[in-house]
Amino acid sequence: MQPYTYFISDLHLSAQRPDITQCLATFLAGQAKGADALYVLGDLFEYWIGDDDRNEFNEHVVSLFKQLADSGIPIFFIHGNRDFLIREKFANRAGMTILPQQHVIDLYGTPTLLMHGDELCTLDLAYQKFRKKARGWWWPRLILTLPLWVRRKIAEKGRKTSQKNQQKLSMEIMDVTSSEVVNFMQKFNVQQLIHGHTHRPAIHQLVANDKPALRIVLGDWYDQGSMLKITSKSIDLTNESLG
Length: 243
What we know:
Layout: E1 5-8, H1 18-29, E2 37-40, H2 56-70, E3 75-77, H3 88-94, E4 96-98, E5 102-107, E6 110-115, H4 125-134, H5 138-143, H6 148-166, H7 171-174, H8 178-187, E7 192-195, E8 202-208, E9 211-217, E10 226-230, E11 235-239
Parallel strand pairs: 1-2, 2-3, 3-4, 6-7, 7-9
Antiparallel strand pairs: 1-10, 5-6, 8-9, 10-11
Protein backbone atom coordinates (compact mmCIF):
# COMPACT_ATOMS: atom_id res chain seq x y z
CA MET A 1 0.00 0.00 0.00
CA GLN A 2 1.17 3.51 -0.83
CA PRO A 3 2.20 5.60 2.20
CA TYR A 4 -0.48 8.19 2.95
CA THR A 5 -1.17 11.28 5.06
CA TYR A 6 -4.55 12.46 6.34
CA PHE A 7 -5.85 16.02 6.73
CA ILE A 8 -9.03 17.07 8.56
CA SER A 9 -10.48 20.36 9.79
CA ASP A 10 -13.66 22.07 10.98
CA LEU A 11 -14.92 19.22 13.13
CA HIS A 12 -16.55 21.70 15.55
CA LEU A 13 -16.67 19.09 18.29
CA SER A 14 -19.13 19.68 21.12
CA ALA A 15 -20.99 17.62 23.69
CA GLN A 16 -24.20 18.53 21.84
CA ARG A 17 -23.09 16.59 18.72
CA PRO A 18 -22.11 13.07 19.88
CA ASP A 19 -22.48 11.85 16.28
CA ILE A 20 -19.48 13.94 15.22
CA THR A 21 -17.41 12.68 18.15
CA GLN A 22 -18.29 9.10 17.25
CA CYS A 23 -17.34 9.70 13.63
CA LEU A 24 -13.98 11.03 14.82
CA ALA A 25 -13.46 8.05 17.13
CA THR A 26 -14.17 5.64 14.26
CA PHE A 27 -11.78 7.50 11.97
CA LEU A 28 -8.94 7.67 14.51
CA ALA A 29 -9.28 3.99 15.38
CA GLY A 30 -9.54 2.98 11.72
CA GLN A 31 -8.24 4.80 8.64
CA ALA A 32 -5.87 7.07 10.55
CA LYS A 33 -4.05 4.14 12.18
CA GLY A 34 -1.89 3.43 9.14
CA ALA A 35 -1.11 7.01 8.15
CA ASP A 36 2.33 8.59 8.02
CA ALA A 37 0.79 11.56 9.84
CA LEU A 38 -2.48 13.30 10.68
CA TYR A 39 -2.90 17.06 10.29
CA VAL A 40 -5.78 18.87 12.01
CA LEU A 41 -6.16 22.25 10.32
CA GLY A 42 -8.19 24.13 12.89
CA ASP A 43 -11.68 24.40 14.39
CA LEU A 44 -11.35 21.07 16.10
CA PHE A 45 -13.87 22.31 18.67
CA GLU A 46 -17.00 24.42 18.35
CA TYR A 47 -15.17 26.70 20.75
CA TRP A 48 -12.25 26.37 23.14
CA ILE A 49 -12.06 28.51 26.26
CA GLY A 50 -8.74 27.33 27.66
CA ASP A 51 -6.65 24.27 28.41
CA ASP A 52 -7.84 24.42 32.03
CA ASP A 53 -11.38 23.49 30.92
CA ARG A 54 -10.85 19.81 31.65
CA ASN A 55 -14.45 18.63 31.56
CA GLU A 56 -15.49 15.08 30.75
CA PHE A 57 -16.13 15.77 27.07
CA ASN A 58 -12.82 17.54 26.44
CA GLU A 59 -10.90 14.82 28.23
CA HIS A 60 -12.62 12.18 26.09
CA VAL A 61 -11.44 13.96 22.93
CA VAL A 62 -7.93 14.16 24.40
CA SER A 63 -7.95 10.41 24.99
CA LEU A 64 -9.03 9.68 21.40
CA PHE A 65 -6.08 11.56 19.93
CA LYS A 66 -3.65 10.31 22.57
CA GLN A 67 -4.43 6.70 21.67
CA LEU A 68 -3.53 7.41 18.04
CA ALA A 69 -0.37 9.30 19.02
CA ASP A 70 0.68 6.47 21.34
CA SER A 71 0.33 4.04 18.42
CA GLY A 72 3.12 5.94 16.68
CA ILE A 73 1.16 8.26 14.36
CA PRO A 74 2.40 11.89 14.48
CA ILE A 75 -0.44 14.40 14.92
CA PHE A 76 -0.07 18.07 13.98
CA PHE A 77 -2.44 20.94 14.72
CA ILE A 78 -2.97 24.44 13.32
CA HIS A 79 -5.26 26.86 15.15
CA GLY A 80 -8.62 27.80 13.68
CA ASN A 81 -10.88 30.72 14.45
CA ARG A 82 -12.78 28.69 17.08
CA ASP A 83 -9.87 27.13 18.95
CA PHE A 84 -7.10 29.75 18.88
CA LEU A 85 -6.85 29.46 22.70
CA ILE A 86 -5.50 25.91 22.52
CA ARG A 87 -2.06 25.86 24.10
CA GLU A 88 0.74 23.38 24.76
CA LYS A 89 -0.94 21.81 27.82
CA PHE A 90 -3.79 20.48 25.70
CA ALA A 91 -1.47 19.56 22.83
CA ASN A 92 0.84 17.61 25.11
CA ARG A 93 -2.03 15.68 26.70
CA ALA A 94 -3.45 14.85 23.26
CA GLY A 95 -0.08 13.93 21.74
CA MET A 96 -0.21 16.76 19.21
CA THR A 97 2.39 19.18 17.90
CA ILE A 98 1.16 22.76 17.36
CA LEU A 99 2.33 24.29 14.07
CA PRO A 100 2.50 27.98 13.04
CA GLN A 101 -0.53 29.64 11.40
CA GLN A 102 1.03 28.99 8.00
CA HIS A 103 3.33 26.01 7.62
CA VAL A 104 5.02 24.34 4.64
CA ILE A 105 5.61 20.58 4.60
CA ASP A 106 7.25 18.26 2.09
CA LEU A 107 4.26 16.14 1.07
CA TYR A 108 5.76 13.20 -0.84
CA GLY A 109 8.05 15.50 -2.77
CA THR A 110 5.58 18.39 -3.18
CA PRO A 111 6.12 21.46 -0.99
CA THR A 112 2.64 22.14 0.43
CA LEU A 113 1.37 25.12 2.40
CA LEU A 114 -1.00 24.29 5.26
CA MET A 115 -3.28 26.80 7.01
CA HIS A 116 -6.72 27.01 8.56
CA GLY A 117 -7.77 29.42 5.81
CA ASP A 118 -9.55 32.25 7.64
CA GLU A 119 -6.73 34.63 6.78
CA LEU A 120 -7.64 34.18 3.11
CA CYS A 121 -11.15 35.65 3.55
CA THR A 122 -10.04 39.27 3.32
CA LEU A 123 -13.39 40.67 2.15
CA ASP A 124 -14.88 39.99 5.58
CA LEU A 125 -13.40 43.13 7.11
CA ALA A 126 -15.13 42.83 10.49
CA TYR A 127 -13.85 39.31 10.98
CA GLN A 128 -10.31 40.21 9.91
CA LYS A 129 -10.29 42.97 12.51
CA PHE A 130 -11.30 40.45 15.17
CA ARG A 131 -8.77 37.92 13.90
CA LYS A 132 -5.93 40.39 14.26
CA LYS A 133 -6.89 40.93 17.90
CA ALA A 134 -7.56 37.27 18.65
CA ARG A 135 -4.23 36.10 17.21
CA GLY A 136 -2.26 38.86 18.91
CA TRP A 137 -0.42 38.49 22.20
CA TRP A 138 -2.40 40.60 24.65
CA TRP A 139 -6.07 39.71 24.04
CA PRO A 140 -5.79 35.90 24.41
CA ARG A 141 -3.63 36.38 27.49
CA LEU A 142 -6.26 38.69 29.00
CA ILE A 143 -9.13 36.32 28.19
CA LEU A 144 -7.33 33.39 29.83
CA THR A 145 -7.11 35.30 33.12
CA LEU A 146 -10.93 35.30 33.41
CA PRO A 147 -12.85 32.59 35.30
CA LEU A 148 -13.98 29.64 33.19
CA TRP A 149 -17.66 30.49 33.55
CA VAL A 150 -17.03 34.00 32.22
CA ARG A 151 -15.03 32.69 29.28
CA ARG A 152 -17.81 30.23 28.47
CA LYS A 153 -20.42 33.00 28.43
CA ILE A 154 -18.20 35.11 26.16
CA ALA A 155 -17.68 32.16 23.78
CA GLU A 156 -21.39 31.31 23.64
CA LYS A 157 -22.32 34.95 23.02
CA GLY A 158 -19.63 35.22 20.34
CA ARG A 159 -20.91 32.08 18.63
CA LYS A 160 -24.48 33.41 18.48
CA THR A 161 -23.27 36.76 17.17
CA SER A 162 -21.19 35.03 14.51
CA GLN A 163 -24.15 32.93 13.35
CA LYS A 164 -26.31 36.05 13.13
CA ASN A 165 -23.68 37.99 11.19
CA GLN A 166 -23.11 35.13 8.73
CA GLN A 167 -26.76 35.24 7.72
CA LYS A 168 -26.21 38.81 6.51
CA LEU A 169 -22.98 38.18 4.60
CA SER A 170 -22.83 37.12 0.97
CA MET A 171 -21.20 33.84 -0.04
CA GLU A 172 -18.51 35.85 -1.82
CA ILE A 173 -17.51 37.70 1.35
CA MET A 174 -17.31 34.49 3.38
CA ASP A 175 -15.18 32.71 0.78
CA VAL A 176 -11.47 33.17 0.12
CA THR A 177 -10.14 36.07 -1.92
CA SER A 178 -8.48 34.62 -5.01
CA SER A 179 -5.68 37.18 -5.08
CA GLU A 180 -4.86 36.45 -1.43
CA VAL A 181 -4.55 32.74 -2.20
CA VAL A 182 -2.01 33.54 -4.92
CA ASN A 183 -0.20 35.98 -2.62
CA PHE A 184 0.30 33.34 0.05
CA MET A 185 1.41 30.69 -2.45
CA GLN A 186 3.92 33.12 -3.91
CA LYS A 187 5.11 34.21 -0.48
CA PHE A 188 5.87 30.60 0.50
CA ASN A 189 6.91 29.58 -3.03
CA VAL A 190 4.55 26.59 -3.27
CA GLN A 191 2.24 25.12 -5.93
CA GLN A 192 -0.03 23.30 -3.49
CA LEU A 193 -2.17 24.68 -0.66
CA ILE A 194 -4.43 22.81 1.76
CA HIS A 195 -6.86 24.65 4.04
CA GLY A 196 -10.29 24.48 5.66
CA HIS A 197 -12.53 27.15 7.20
CA THR A 198 -14.93 27.80 4.32
CA HIS A 199 -16.70 24.42 4.57
CA ARG A 200 -16.61 24.09 0.78
CA PRO A 201 -14.64 20.92 -0.01
CA ALA A 202 -13.14 21.05 -3.48
CA ILE A 203 -9.91 20.81 -5.45
CA HIS A 204 -9.24 24.03 -7.36
CA GLN A 205 -6.78 24.49 -10.19
CA LEU A 206 -5.13 27.89 -10.48
CA VAL A 207 -1.91 29.63 -11.46
CA ALA A 208 0.65 30.78 -8.90
CA ASN A 209 4.31 31.63 -9.36
CA ASP A 210 3.50 31.53 -13.11
CA LYS A 211 2.89 27.77 -12.90
CA PRO A 212 -0.12 25.46 -12.48
CA ALA A 213 -1.12 25.08 -8.85
CA LEU A 214 -3.69 23.31 -6.64
CA ARG A 215 -5.81 24.61 -3.76
CA ILE A 216 -7.43 21.80 -1.81
CA VAL A 217 -10.26 22.81 0.52
CA LEU A 218 -11.36 20.55 3.37
CA GLY A 219 -15.02 20.31 4.31
CA ASP A 220 -16.63 20.51 7.74
CA TRP A 221 -17.96 17.78 10.03
CA TYR A 222 -21.38 19.29 10.74
CA ASP A 223 -22.73 17.15 7.90
CA GLN A 224 -19.83 16.15 5.68
CA GLY A 225 -17.31 14.28 7.85
CA SER A 226 -14.74 15.52 5.35
CA MET A 227 -11.25 14.03 5.20
CA LEU A 228 -8.37 14.28 2.76
CA LYS A 229 -6.01 11.39 2.04
CA ILE A 230 -2.90 12.08 0.00
CA THR A 231 -0.29 9.68 -1.34
CA SER A 232 2.61 10.30 -3.70
CA LYS A 233 0.26 9.48 -6.60
CA SER A 234 -3.28 10.43 -5.52
CA ILE A 235 -5.48 13.02 -3.82
CA ASP A 236 -8.66 11.61 -2.29
CA LEU A 237 -11.14 14.08 -0.76
CA THR A 238 -13.98 12.08 0.79
CA ASN A 239 -16.81 12.29 3.32
CA GLU A 240 -17.49 9.94 6.22
CA SER A 241 -21.15 9.31 7.04
CA LEU A 242 -22.32 11.05 10.21
CA GLY A 243 -25.50 9.00 10.25
